[in-house]
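Notebook entry, cofactor series.
This is the third protein in the set we're modelling with a bound small molecule. For this one the ligand is magnesium ion. I'm keeping the input format identical across the series so the outputs can be compared line by line later. Sequence and SMILES below, as received.
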Amino acid sequence: MMDNSFRFRELLTAGRIRVRDGEIFRQSPPELRDGFDFSRVEGMLLGLAIGNALGNTTESQSPRARYEQHGEIRDYLRHPYYGDARGYPSDDTQLAFWTLEQALEDGGFDPASLARRFARRRIFGIGNTVRQFQFNYGAGKPWERCGVPSAGNGALMRIAPILVPHLRYPSPALWADAALCTMITHNDSMAVASSVAFVAVLWDLLTMDEAPELGSLGPGGAARHRAGTSTVARAATGSDWRIRWPARWPSGSAAAPPA
Ligand SMILES: [Mg+2]
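Returned structure with ligand:
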């Protein structure tokens, strides 16, 4: 399988990728146990598409405004463009599944090949950063110079499939891929570090026996949760990492607005 660690190291040394070096980039994610259920990966990817379609119709609303208008959203809302209440995914799902498609076709993540796909295809609900990336690519810049210094969530939302080529043989190359995949569009330290941390969280979730209870995480619950996460997730997020949970978070609901 292709290993982008050297490429990542080169870009890091040259100051081309906007992220600081850290221990995480030398650590292997934990091995998946024998008999790992690969349908979980399918679930993760379908979850991405379904979550995208559920949120698509209220994108960019504040949690409070969304809750006041719709309560907790548990089904698809009427789509303002298509007019019916079905699951219409958008850019999040497109970009994520093109990432998967690229890895399957090329036998691993290849940033140049993925950048080409992102640059040339029609994207629904495209954000400013990805639009600027496409402009840069169209102007003839090499892929590693097309990423925009933006800390938007447009790379985080599509990053999940980056762990797929690493499932059988986990190595530190996973973090290099997460970082490079992010910088294609979002060359920003917050965006890159967030992607690496999120991939670590997803990897942890794949290894868990049961889903963690989000509703049980109140003040103090975050610390309990943190104590249960792997060294990899902690390394990715740093020692002074805190989840800032709202002061009042109604138990049992993951979708309630911040108090
Ligand atoms: Mg979107």
